[in-house]
Amino acid sequence: MSEKERVSTNSKLKKELSLLNVWAIAFGCIIGWGSFINPGKKFLPNSGVMGTGIGMLVGAIIMIIIAKSYAYLIPKHPKSGGEFTFTKIYFGKKLAYLCGWFLVAAYLTNVPMNSTALGLIIDGLFGSVLKIGFHYTVAGFDIYMGEMLFSIAIIVLFAFFNIKGVKVAGIIQTILASMLVVSVLILTLAAVFSPKTSIDNIYPMWGFDKESVQEEYSKTNEFSIDKYAYKSTNKIINSIIATLAIAPWAFVGFDTIPQVTEEAKYSHKKTYFIMIIAIIFGAFVYIANNTITALTLKNWPELIVESSSSPWLLLTAAEYLLGNFGKVLVGLAVLSAVLSGMMGFYMASSRIIFSMAREGYLPTVFSKIHSKYSTPVNAIIFCMIISISGPILGREALGWFVDMSSVGTSIAFAFTCLAAVVSISKEKSNDIVLKIMGIVGFAFSIIFIALQLIPVPGLEEVHFKMPSYIMLIIWTVLGFLFYLIQKENIDSNNERNVFEYE
Questions:
Q1: How does pLDDT run across 395-452, given as a tens digit for each residue?
Q2: Domain 3-493 is of which CATH architecture?
Q3: Element (H or E) spanning 351, and its range?
């Protein structure tokens, strides 16, 4: 079969995703490897149980407020592209390109980043079985041939699933998301009813000054957690903000729904319900994983300080609670989270690239649809090629790119909320509550961007490190150059009606 026969230029996508499928896509994107490793890496030391819990709950409420603008705009403009499409309609082609370009970064970086967690999962559960063949180091991270080839194979396999059709991808995503929920729920119930857990173990409940404790430990081989525990009002507020500030990263995923809305076969009026449920489930998993770890491990502060790397404390806690079954349970949960994240962001990334190409913002080759499966095959293959860089470069190097995910997501949040406000104003609607929610959502989106880009004393863990600033500048410059290259196509394509292909 020739390429011309295999790939169609028809820009219509099939409506094959159910309500449950779309929820699974959103929830699967929200929960990834970070929710399982960050109790020991960020949440407990920076915010403790209480700071993380409050930060995540407030973050979830803010996301639900922002989601209202999405729910308002999606039924009005039910096309793949979401935030890019909203921005184009209400603010023009230049800002639409800006929004779309950073949204590509926000989604696309998550596929390779999730893939690099596969080796860590196998290593945590089965030891060094994949640490075989040649190896090298990038930014202090050891990369082995066995782990690299395993991750690349999964990336290619999931590209195949996505090409085979959105129905196949949706079914696989639903199975993975369901396994994730069930695994975390069983672990939560075990922690609640086990005599091995204790509420006293959550101290220091607001976190502690990890750097000061480690400095003291390096000099004396002894330390006092109580001495550096956060107790003052200022420190407690900072501990909450430290978690709240990463809400765009923590909850990125509910906003993937508009990317697949063109392929959804349910009423778009149900969009807000799906988003709220996905956000609530996401907040539950983040808070549950963190709280279970602290309740179970009395010495969690010591484990964090004494470890030369970020300890996978939840795995240790699960094994202590339920033995090998607990270890398998966490392994199943985190594997489901990683694979569902890969699947979901594959779909979201390819759809935003497809949508931008369909309207001339990216090369038209990415707008081609598979004639048999009705999927954006070239966009998916492009995502696959880019994602293979993950296992090759390693997690530390990719972290510089992934930091842009929060900024890209926040930019999309800001444009969507503002678009909703403008739309309401133009229609002279009396829906004051929706308008206020749009304004509040926009304000928080700007605050999230500022917290990422502007250093704030006491919140050093939140804002960008130098490599991330460099990557952001490079991505911005590349976007500007690419816009100049595509400007003629953008101008010619936007002389026609944005929905003429309907």
A1: 777 777 777 788 899 999 999 999 999 999 988 777 899 999 999 999 999 999 998 8
A2: Up-down Bundle (1.20)
A3: helix 324-358
pLDDT at 102: 93
H or E segment to which residue 255 belongs: none
Amino acid at 393: L
Question: Cα(141)–Cα(394) distance, rounded to whole angstroms?
Answer: 6
Q: What is the distance between the alpha carbons of residues 411 and 83, in angstroms, rounded to a whole number? A: 9
**Do residues 151 and 119 touch, judged by C-beta distance below 8 A?**
yes
CA geometry: angle 323, 185, 288, nearest 5 deg? 90
Per-residue confidence (pLDDT) for residue 34, from 0 to 100: 87
Which candidate, 326, 319, 340, places its Cα nearest to that of 118? Answer: 340
Tokens of 402: 């992934």
pLDDT digit string, tens, across residues 16-28: 889 999 999 999 9
Three-point CA angle 431, 433, 437, nearest 5°: 120
Residue 494 has pLDDT above 80, yes or no: no
Angstrom CA distances, 313 to 73, 226, 294, 309, stand at 41, 20, 9, 11
The number of helix segments (H) and strand segments (E) in the chain equals 23, 4
Question: Cα 465–470–474 angle (5° rounding)?
Answer: 150
Do β-strands 141-144 and 369-370 pair in parallel, antiparallel, or remain unpaired? unpaired
DSSP 43: I
SS3 302: helix
Residue holding tokens 């890209």?
408
Secondary structure of the chain: what % helix, strand, coil (to 5)? Answer: 75, 5, 25
Q: Domain-by-domain residue ranges, the chain?
A: 3-493
Asked if 444 contacts 248 with a C-beta cutoff of 8 angstroms, the reply is no
Report the distance separating Cα 401 and Cα 409, nearest Å.
13
The first and second tokens of residue 480, run together, are 């500007």
